[in-house]
Amino acid sequence: MTNINEFIAAWRSHRNVLHDMVADVTTEQMSFKPWEKGMSIAELVLHITGSMDMFVKTVQNGVFTPGSKQAFTTADELRAGVAGATEQTEAILRSLTPEQLTQSIDFFGNSLPGFVLLQNAKDHEIHHKGQLFTYLRLAGIEKLPFFVSRG
């Protein structure tokens, strides 16, 4: 993957679904955890967006860069946070140069090209989005989107 536009389109086909997934979440449901030590719905959503932020900033900077930490108290704030994080992440992705995509970056003891880190980031997001589908069902949300969007 060296074409960043193709990557962005593939990533957005999954991220757009995250927006749809949180559309019906209520403020009360945000704190739902399927088990005591698990993340809440809100924490899982923020883990998804914060991890992608970390990966794209790491590729942008060439060294590990922590992602943004956010906390929200209402479902409307959560939805706005997802929207803002998505736009910020896409802006950074669009700014990446071919050199940044091919540079080797030390990532927890592994030296990986930037484009490999981005693919790992997308796979990580897909993994946790799958978990979120289960969380939302358990929290009582019956209407959920298809796992990928082409729109």
From TrEMBL:
Domain of life: Bacteria
Transmembrane stretches, start-end: none
InterPro entries named among the record's database cross-references: DinB, DinB/YfiT-like
Any one GO molecular function term: metal ion binding
Binding positions (a divalent metal cation): 47, 124, 128
Record keyword DNA damage present: no
Keyword line: Metal-binding
Keyword Lipid biosynthesis set for record: no
Entry similarity comment: Belongs to the DinB family.
Name of the molecule in the record: Uncharacterized damage-inducible protein DinB (Forms a four-helix bundle)
Native organism: Paenibacillus catalpae
Source species taxonomy: Bacteria, Bacillati, Bacillota, Bacilli, Bacillales
